[in-house]
Amino acid sequence: MNTVISGDERVARPSAPEGLAGPAGTTTRFALLVMAVIATSALIFLDVYSAVPSNQARVTNAQQACKQRLLDGLSGVGQANTQARAQLLTQFRQCLTPANRAWDAWAGYGILIVFALAAMLYLLHPWRKINGWQTHGWRISRQRARALATDKDPALAAALAQLSREAGLSRPPVWLASRSPRVTAVAFGLPWRRYVRLNAGLVVLRGKDPDGFRATIRHELAHLSNRDVDLTFATVAIWRAFTVVALLPFLVFALQPSLLSDPMRWRFSAVSANLNEIVAVLALTLTVYLTRSSILRLRELHADATAAALDKSSEALSGRLEANLKLPENRHRASWSAWLKMHPGPARRMAVLKDPARLTRPSWWELAGVGIAAGVLAANAGFVFNQLALASLLGPALGGVFGALPAIGLLAATLWRATAGSGTSSPRRLGIWMLMPPVALAAGFCVGEPLAFINSVDTFSYLWGSAAIATSLAAMGFITVGGVLLTCWIVATIRAAAAAPGSRRRQAFPVVTICAIIAGTPWFAVWFGFWYINSPLLAPGVGPPPEVGGFIGWYRLWAQWSGLNWPPLQWVHAIPLTLPGLTLLWLAPLALTTWRRAPGPRFSHACMPVRLALAPALVGACAATVVNVALACAVKVALPVTVRESPAPGVFFDSVYANTEIVIAVLAEAAVAAAVVARARQYRIPLALLAVTATATLNAVSIPLVSDSIAKCMDVFGDKPEGYAAFTLSCVRVPPAVDSALTLHQLTTEGFIAAVPAALLAAAFTAFRRRHPAPVSTGNPGHWLVARVLTAVTIALLLAVTGASAIVLLPHDWMVWQG
Amino acid sequence: MSRNGDRSLTCDLSWVIVAEVAPEERAVFQVLSEAYFAPVGKDREDEELGFDGTEVVALLTPVVMAAVDSVTQELIGDLIRDKVAHGMSAARAAVRRLFRLDERGDSGETGKSGEPPLQLTAAQWTKVYRIAVEAVVKAGGTPEVAERVANALVVAGQGVPPQE
Fold first, then answer.
1. How far apart are CA A808 and CA A810, in angstroms?
2. Buried b / exposed e across A745-765, counting CB within 10 Å, b at 16+?
3. A493 and A434 in contact (C-beta within 8 Å)?
4. pLDDT for A340 beyond 60
5. CA atoms within 13 A on the CB side of A471
């Protein structure tokens, strides 16, 4: 066991690779707690808003007035005038915006009050602990602690001072005493003054069992050195503030909805009408409570690990835990109640002492909880943004961002802990274990989203209708696939980071997390937008038949299948971060594994061999160009000129031809990805992604400048005037920047999608091939330098093209999202 | 337990006895003595960042204070009844002199005194011994603990414990 500095936490951990420290489990669970409290509080305050008569009246009046205005407008517009009708609907939503804004602001202020009260409770907790105010259910009692009279017992003072020094504390705590005969102690306090309160029973134990006394004190001091105090009491404060500010008022209004309008009248029917919301809030509150308890339990396990590391053998601590285990109340400790308690049972603590790797294993329920909270957050945020009269998909998509950010971030943190902190000298390999986190996350999301405010009004049929179950399963499958792909990338990048120099390794966790968020959020946001508006457009469909030449059977079939489209993908193309996100998926591992120094004996094992991606990319792009040129020749022979003419925009030959070029290019990218995966020994995922990006970029250039130009010169499109020379410079047309950027987006995103099954097949095909270690090559330093320069220039060009295309498309993207 | 006893007398004498029979409790004597005079409800068993030790040890300070409280009440009553001391204050002062409380330092060792200490007869010390034993047992102490506390009380007053 070693003690690793990790951000602001210092924990005793199994030997993670040097510098690969990331957040401990409690950090991620604390983030989950905050998420869950925000999500549940938003739901509660949105609901409680309408319980106030004046608020309800304001909303009702606004709805009536705006609806009347809409009806008046619609009566003067014909049924066929869809544009005018759409405008009237937009005006209707804008009319409701002021009332909706007040509604949303109520929820926002409520959440602020929850966290403000939590901050106050946290700051006051030392006063509460010292003055001994305690709650036993609804009873309150007081046991004031006193300063431990160490002057009356110099040997005790010396022992405590020695233990403080061993714990590495820059300042020893203030030692307090309490009257309790129980053999325990408590650590608390604010950052500028920490306390440890020893029970009288523990002080007495020192005479009978000095090792046990030291083990217990070490445990408490470990809480200070692990910086648990702030996180723990912040957790408790948040839970209590949530209970007082959000939960209790909600329960009051749920049980007596007419409290403010007609308090003396109570009807069961009014309560039963709120049953869905009550169930939803209680389910979410349970999530909050379980998260809060798990944070407290996990800190105890980490403190045990730290204390055991300070003890030459951990037998003293084990002895104390065994003594506790023998007590009757612990022997028959019900397993279900363990979930609710602040302390893990002695048996669990002893098991973790023996196998500290348990602390790093991802917990399925933790990720399910993240999914639940993300689902509620996304749906509530989507509801709020939708009320702001944004364009039809923009509001829900923004809500999806709110769900994706914490979900992906916490997934990355959990995977980091499981991979880098697995207790072996090298990080954990990709394997079947990676299926659990995304499945748990997806399952939690599908449970959480129906509990959100917009859905809580009809939760049961939402959950249990047959269509709902099928939709949920399909949604869960989609999120799971995306989650698995992201998981593979995260784990592969962590493993790549383990081989990086120390300075890069320390940056690895934030880099991996941020890149995963940027890459994954656009896809999830679009998917969630479609999910939110219950759009049936989640399945891809073939394109329409051609307007001319459809009687030619093979041409008709070719036109439809080459026009295969998936509407959500159009929206993904229109997010400025999509292409940069995909770029980061190969750029981050490259940046983490690039060395500045000249190669040494370990060179070929450390740096990402970029040439393994760029060379196949060049070959693939050339091959696609050749095929496109061959296509032009073939089409000119196979189709009459009347079919090849395109008199107007629509599904004519030019669009079919363009779609076909895209298909060929995408297939080439998939083949390149498969070739890279089959050939590379290490860094297969980022190399394959880099190869796809490079191929797509080359294709985006070659299609208009080479393939299309040749096709035009060959008069494939039947638009060359009579008498023109066979080849003139007018054949070569540089397309507008926007068109080029759109093509690049399409080729890259569809190339990434096509690369996944291709790469998986290649990986499966080579899985049984015997792997020989790559030969160690010191290389010629001169050749190495040339290669590095060429690589750097190529990468810089790719990045410049990617960045430029994202910027060029900003106005186009805005128009798409504005509808 | 008498709530009307002289807290100072009880605390000072209890400190002497605790230093003798349970020196490990010296550091927590103050908080235990305050708890004796202001008992509160049940401990909270599950506290944040506590070790969660459910094991409980028997503390001697509360039973010592119970014994001292009973003994001092009895002695004060006897002194007033026998007209050795006139009034509660005088009786308390006499009991303090008996155990030389004002002469002892924090370690419990006696120093010099101006006034002659009170003397009790053997029968009176036997009675003190018996009261102390009964009080300790009533407060939840074991007979062995009761004997130790009673012996310490008698020795502190420079008496001789009864031979049984």
1. 6
2. bbbbbbbbbbbbebbeebbee
3. no
4. yes
5. 22
pLDDT for the residue numbered A424 = 47
Which position has the token pair 């820059």?
A170
Banded model confidence at residue A9, pLDDT cuts 50, 70, 90: very low
CA–CA dist A676, A684 (Å, integer): 7
Residues of B in contact with A137 (CB under 8 A): none
Report the predicted TM-score, pTM, of the whole model to 2 decimal places: 0.76
**Percent of chain A predicted with pLDDT > 90:** 21
Average pLDDT over residues A749-756: 93
Nearest Cα of chain A lies from the Cα of B54 at a distance, in angstroms, of 6
Alpha-carbon span A238 to A244, nearest angstrom? 10
- CA A265 to chain CA mean position, Å: 47
Q: How far is CA A742 from CA A34, A692, A695, A747, A805, in A?
A: 39, 16, 16, 9, 8
Q: How many CB atoms lie within 10 A of CB B61?
A: 26
For B:97-116, CB contacts with A below 8 A are 106
User: What tens digit of pLDDT does each residue of B46-80 get?
Assistant: 677 777 666 788 899 999 999 999 999 998 888 88
From chain A, pick out residues whose CB is under 8 angstroms from the CB of B54: 182, 324, 327, 329-330
- Which residue of A199, A217, A218 is the best one to mutate when testing the B interface, meaning the one whose CB has the most B CBs within 10 A? A199
Query: pLDDT tens digit string along A66-111?
Result: 889 888 888 887 777 777 887 888 788 788 888 888 888 888 999 9
Tokens of A104: 């949303």
Q: Which of A121, A343, A349, A350 to mutate to test the interface with B (most CBs of B within 10 A)?
A: A343
